[in-house]
Specification:
Elements: E1 2-3, E2 6-10, E3 31-34, E4 47-53, H1 58-76, E5 85-90, E6 115-121, H2 126-144, E7 151-157, H3 171-176
Parallel strand pairs: 4-5, 6-7
Antiparallel strand pairs: 1-2, 2-3, 4-6
Length: 177
């Protein structure tokens, strides 16, 4: 996978264990940067924005956030303490999602109970994203009864220099030195 002037190759592969669950990635190394002296030492945390209709109880929001983080830990190797989530509860008149778009031929439609999850992150492989897209709706159905048809996921990848996580530092670049 090419990202900017760095070619990233996964050091671990996704697989299923005996119970069929996705195996966790090695937390110490997700990518090796080839053609460059930098090596990403562990998966960088994502920032997660969660958009949904207002009015859900706090227990629902907690279970929603827990499920998202669990899926990220399982499929992207995110450390347990790297949890950055922002909830955006919207009034119905400000939250318009078509009930049928992109579901044609699937035999389902969306309800008004759509949740949009936008994740801003450092580079991830297609396989990592595919595993996350599959695992998260499973966890949300089990934890809060959310239909997989009502789960929108958008991943926005950024360069390492696009992150300052405090103290005015270019955090991810400076951590690599």
């Amino acid at each position: 996978m090419r990202f900017g002037n760095i070619v990233l190759t996964p050091l671990t592969k996704m697989g299923a264990n005996a119970t069929g669950n996705t195996t966790k990635l090695d937390l110490r190394t997700c990518f090796q940067a080839s053609g460059n002296s930098n090596t990403l030492r562990r998966c960088k945390m994502p920032i997660v924005h969660i958009y949904l209709l207002e009015g859900k109880p706090q227990t629902y929001l907690k279970a929603l956030g827990d499920s998202i983080h669990q899926a990220l830990m399982e499929t992207w190797g995110i450390p347990e303490k790297d949890r950055f989530q922002m909830f955006h509860e919207k009034k119905a008149e400000n939250f318009k999602i078509d009930h049928f778009s992109y579901l044609e031929g699937e035999g389902v439609q969306r309800s008004d109970d759509v949740t949009v999850i936008q994740i801003t992150t450092s580079p991830r492989t297609i396989d990592m994203k595919r595993a996350f897209y599959k695992r998260l709706p499973e966890l949300l159905k089990d934890s809060i009864g959310l239909s997989p048809a009502n789960v929108f996921i958008n991943v926005v990848m950024t360069d390492e220099e696009d992150w300052s996580l405090g103290l005015g530092k270019m955090t991810l670049i400076e951590k690599l030195k």
